[in-house]
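Exercise: predict the fold of this chain.
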Amino acid sequence: MQIFRNRPLALAACVMALSSLLAWLCPGRLRLCLALLALLAALVPVGFLAVRRRLGRRAAVCLLSLLGVFVGMFGSWLGFSVRPGAFASRVGEEITVQGYVTERLNSAPHETRLRVELNEIDGERRSGQVLLECGYLSSLQPGERFRATGLVRAPENTALYPERTVLLSDGYIGILRCEESGDCTVYAGTVRTPALTLRRWNRLLCDRLTQSLGREAGALAGALLLGNRDLLTGDTELQFRRAGISHILALSGMHVSVLIGALELLLRLLRLPRRVRAFLVPPAALLYFGLTGCSPSIFRSVLMTCVLYLGLLFSEQYDSFTALCVALMLILTVTPYAVLDVSLWLSFVAAAGIVLFLPAVAVLFRRPVWRWLPHGLRRLLRGLVTALAVGLFSNAAILPLLALFFGSTSVFSLPATLALTPLLSLTLVLPALVLLLPGLPPLAFLAEHSLRAMLAVAEWFSDIPGGTVPLTGRAQALLLALLAASLLLCAVLRLRRQGWLLLPVALAGAVLLTGHIGTLARGEGTAAVYLRDGENEMLLLSRGADAVAVDVSDGSAATGDLLVAALDEAGCTELRELVFTHYHSGMSHLIASLSAKVRIFSLRLPEPLNPKEAALSARLEQEAALHGIPVCRGGGELPLPGAELLDCRRTDTDAVEVPVLLMLRLGTQVLTYLGSGALQSDWRDVAQNAVLSSDVLIFGCHGPQSGGDAPSVRLPQSPALLLFGSREQAALCQGLPAGAPVVAGVESHRFFLK
């Protein structure tokens, strides 16, 4: 194949990566058997070499490929079968472990999650990385030794969050949960390891940046320069994601090339010879790799940089695609579980797209027309065309992966990247100089304003409506398959005309255009989705790309997860309004978590009925202000064509569960939601009249549960839909109308309104 011609290491690395992916789908013993078969097959070329005393090119390629299969399969067996075995076989059991904390992770309001390294399990020497969940706010810090007793919890795979796959891709062997603070105690001082020392330096440098540049600009500088995104707000990450420039926040070859270029310029100003520069740059790159957390993308970039400079040092020829594949081989050899890391594949596929297709752009600059242009203009146009080609080819290469893993992408990824590329150099070099020269205020001033300019550009692109395009349509699936096939064919075939390389770019544009057309061509009616997880309920109303969510329960994280999954399924990437029907203490956390995943344009709250609700309302307004969400109150028109909030009632009580009556006008139909206990409230007659005047009726589960003597309800003669959150709710009705569509006991139901 053309791509692997005279590149045996590249072929072996790609075969190894493919075998690692296939091994993930195989049972544990089958992985080991396939690894042993590959090893036995690799002995054939070795035997041929022993007999003939000569190993030809084809035999060498075969040997390297088979060894790659063996390493991939054997590593997968160790990473997915052997290492997690100590925990997978003890799910539900109580165990006692000893170890030390390596990192504090993001926590929920009333619990703490920690990444820990174990040394002992039930008195036996065992090692492995475990996710420790504390059902309380723990004070454990990185480096502290601990002893804990808890239950081994099984990972939960859902459509929204495949927990088992995510944990395995991060190197965890299991999950341990401790409910009480007494179950986890500190002992025997702290641990000092090189990794912990580098992580502590990283935090100290990030703190210094926030002190010098301000919290918002310093957090962005820490993410761009040091790879530490812990201080970034969810709003900032959402803005970068909606603008299609999340890759700027993930350290990659772009960041390394800017910093290495600045270092190279400094060494040239010092008039150091080329060999001295080539000798000094690789150690600096390796130090930067350790300081930034040793991520796969930065490892790829640092390794390629080291190979390049070592090649210059020894006057050897440098092949970027071979260096890229060798980096992938080393990552999968050392950490075989990284084969499940989505960011790894996005990084390598984007880099491969640039490496393979960018040389074709060089052909354009050999045309005679370029020689007629002035030298300065020729250099400027060459840089612009190269930057545009890099963005086009990298975005086209990863588009199938974005559709597979995320289901959406941004049409502004390329223009936003081009707009921020000049700023990126400033936002990397200036904060680095602030750390090296903290006593120069002009450097801090320039660094802060360049970072704020980057934030402003990202916010501007993210605020453009319709910028995020869903990739879930059938026509898009066909075009994405053709795009993947064209990328593969362009890579492996010898193309006589370089113009064929524009085919993947054209197909990528067709995918985005089809997504926009599909969004505009959706039905004229309003689609409604009823979502339920136990007693947590929510309504999602969508029309085209616009959506409104109505939370009729307690605003828990479960409803937020349901909403995000429903938005993805409906092909909506924005939430025009979030409506709360009553107050609960967990709603501020729901706003914060949703704002990190979905753009919310407005928040609607009910009028407070007592001092407790007034305090909760003020807290929700503060949380919304932190995320730039305007707040409105009461009823009125909703940001959907023909949608209006007619009535929203709940009892004036301090009880945890509150009966709710909700009435919405959607087009020509009226939708009424009745929470459990609504018919037993003081406004029972109002609720009965609302039922009789409605077209779509939803009898929900949230609220005080009705007893056996609960009053029944009369139904309209010809409702468009009767939906019961549970089958017990259907017992409240005095006979169902003949021919009426009835749905009972479902967790999700989608229907359309006229």
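Check your answer against the key: The chain has four domains: 2-82, 85-191, 342-411+472-521, 526-753.
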